[in-house]
Amino acid sequence: MIGLINWSNALIVTLLGFLLVFCLLVLLVFILMLFGVIMKAKKEPEKSAEKSQTSAVETAPIEEASEAEMAAIAMAIRLLYADGLDETETAGKLTFKGRPTAWNSKIYGINNLDR
Description:
By secondary structure, the protein is mainly α.
């Protein structure tokens, strides 16, 4: 009686499990598609409001920046990325000198069991 398996019941349980998982996955796909439709419909009124605002901006004339303004912008960008460092060998390199922490300290080694 130990080696006997009721293969018809095992097959029914297996097929029912696969069918249940497949149906739930299909249901999940439909739910996600429904959320997508709802979000797209909710976003469309916002887009129409943005278009009315951008149309007023697009009709305004674009002014050219003067040379002094362009120089000020270039200097601000350079200072932003330079962080006040000189153009030396250490510019752009990260240096860190710290003391050893507990994870790499030799005093906590496995051979030091006499505490």
